[in-house]
Design goal:
Elements lengths: L28 H12 L3 E3 L9 E5 L1 H4 L9 E12 L3 E6 L9 E6 L2 E6 L5 E6 L1 H14 L10 H6 L1 H10 L1
Antiparallel strand pairs: 1-2, 2-3, 3-6, 4-5, 6-7
The structure holds cobalt (II) ion.
């Protein structure tokens, strides 16, 4: 089932998500999120974006591979994710968000992160992520804390997109 995507301006996107204790509480959510992300053509989707304040997100790099075939194909689900440590090296990347359509801005983040999460079978993984997976993981992880990529922009960049943001807020 395709779920409606919550847009910028909704207070849901500013709330903290909660730990998932039992895979049964998810029901068809993982499957629905995968379908919703595919339909939207995005590369990541977090629980709050479909109105579920739970610690879950998915990554699908397929849309990027169509543009750049050097990108690793990743289709993964992450439950109760944690960032264990971050690397000192930072990089810039133009980010967008399905909840903030039409806005793309360069965001600075650590290049490498050590993470821990459960997959959709509730199996624990501890991994060092880099490249595109590290980037998307951090963006989606922020969603679970009620943080959006536009929060990380400079005052000047924020001022420049203020009107576009207002339009999205009014659309919701
Ligand atoms: Co997003």
């Amino acid at each position: 089932m395709i779920l409606p995507i919550i847009l910028y301006g909704s207070s849901i996107l500013r709330k903290k998500s909660t730990t998932i204790f039992d895979p049964d509480e998810l029901g068809s959510l993982p499957e629905n999120m995968v379908q919703t992300l595919k339909k939207a053509g995005g590369i990541g989707l977090a629980g709050p974006q479909v109105g579920m304040l739970k610690d879950i997100f998915i990554i699908d790099t397929t849309p990027l591979i169509n543009v750049n075939n050097e990108i690793a194909p990743i289709e993964k689900g992450y439950i109760n994710p944690e960032i264990v440590s971050i690397e000192e090296n930072f990089s810039w990347y133009s980010e967008g968000c399905l909840s903030i359509p039409g806005i793309f801005e360069e965001v600075k983040r650590p290049e490498k992160v050590d993470v821990r999460y459960l997959d959709f079978n509730f199996i624990l993984h501890e991994e060092t992520l880099n490249g595109i997976e590290a980037r998307i993981f951090q963006h989606e992880f922020d969603h679970l804390l009620g943080v959006l990529f536009i929060d990380k922009l400079s005052t000047i960049r924020k001022a420049l997109i203020r009107n576009k943001l207002k339009q999205i807020r009014n659309k919701k």
